[in-house]
Write a structure and sequence with these properties.
heterodimer, A: mainly beta, Immunoglobulin-like, six-stranded mixed beta sheet, three-stranded antiparallel beta sheet, 0% helix, globular, B: mainly beta, seven-stranded mixed beta sheet, four-stranded antiparallel beta sheet
Chain lengths: 108, 114
C-alpha cells in the first residue's frame, strides 16, 4: 500500500539549532517525493521536490531508497521556519498522498 | 506557477443543506484535484476532476455526496451535499500544470456545519 509516514506531530527547536523532519514512505515503484509547507494563515506551498535536488530557504532533502526515507533538514533553524510541514508522494496517476504533517516550532 | 482562487473562503451552513465551492485557475491546467483537510488532520484526496467527464473518486468518497463539475480547463466546482457536522473541514482545490511535476494549491474553503 502507498503510504507516507511522518512520525513526529511536533518538533520544537531553538533558533540556530539543526532541524530534521522525518518522512518515510511505502511505494511499489519509483517514488516522486515532495515537501510542502504551510505557514500560519497562508496556503499550502511546495518547498522541495526530490528530483530537483535543490536547496530552498536552507532546507535540503535527500531520497534514500534503501531506507525509504525523504527527511527534510536544515543546519540552522530560523524563527520564520515555524510552520506545518507535509511530506507527500506522487503516484503514477499524479495524485499526492500526504503524510500527517509535522509542526515545526522554532523558539527564540 | 498557477494562481488559484476559491469561493467562498469560508461558510457556515446548516445541517442538511449543501455548499458549492468554486475553483478558478488563471491558466489552463492539465489536472485538477479536490482535497479535504479535517480539523487537525492531513490532506485527503476526494477526487480528480476530469474535464468534460465524470470525476474519479477515491475510496470512501461518492458522487452523491461530493458531486464535482469541470466544464473547462480553468474551472471546477465541488458540492458537499446533505451536510452534517462531520463535513466541517477545509476543502482545497489543487492543479497540476502541463509539466505535471508540481501541484499548486488554492487557499482553501473553510466549512463549518452547525
Amino acid at each position: 500500500a502507498q503510504r507516507v509516514t511522518q512520525p513526529e506531530k511536533l518538533l520544537s527547536v531553538f533558533k540556530g539549532a539543526p532541524v530534521e523532519l522525518k518522512c518515510n514512505y511505502s511505494y511499489s515503484g519509483s517514488p516522486e517525493l515532495f515537501w510542502y509547507v504551510q505557514y500560519s494563515r497562508q496556503r499550502l506551498q511546495l518547498l522541495l521536490r526530490h528530483i530537483s535536488r535543490e536547496s530552498i530557504k536552507g532546507f535540503t532533502a535527500d531520497l534514500n531508497k534503501g531506507e525509504t526515507s525523504f527527511h527534510l533538514k536544515k543546519p540552522f533553524a530560523q524563527e520564520e521556519d515555524s510552520a506545518m510541514y507535509y511530506c507527500a508522494l506522487k503516484d503514477s496517476s499524479y495524485k499526492l498522498i500526504f503524510g500527517s504533517g509535522t509542526r515545526l516550532l522554532v523558539r527564540p | 506557477s498557477a494562481v488559484i482562487s476559491q469561493k467562498p473562503s469560508r461558510d457556515i451552513c446548516q445541517r442538511g443543506t449543501s455548499l458549492t465551492i468554486q475553483c478558478q485557475v488563471d491558466s489552463q491546467v492539465t489536472m485538477m484535484f479536490w482535497y479535504r483537510q479535517q480539523p487537525g488532520q492531513s490532506l485527503t484526496l476526494i477526487a480528480t476532476a476530469n474535464q468534460g467527464s465524470e470525476a474519479t473518486y477515491e475510496s470512501g468518497f461518492v458522487i452523491d455526496k461530493f458531486p464535482i463539475s469541470r466544464p473547462n480547463l480553468t474551472f471546477s466546482t465541488l458540492t458537499v451535499s446533505n451536510l452534517s457536522p462531520e463535513d466541517s473541514s477545509i476543502y482545497l482545490c489543487s492543479v497540476t500544470g502541463t509539466g505535471l511535476y508540481e501541484q499548486y494549491f488554492g487557499p482553501g474553503t473553510r466549512l463549518t456545519v452547525t
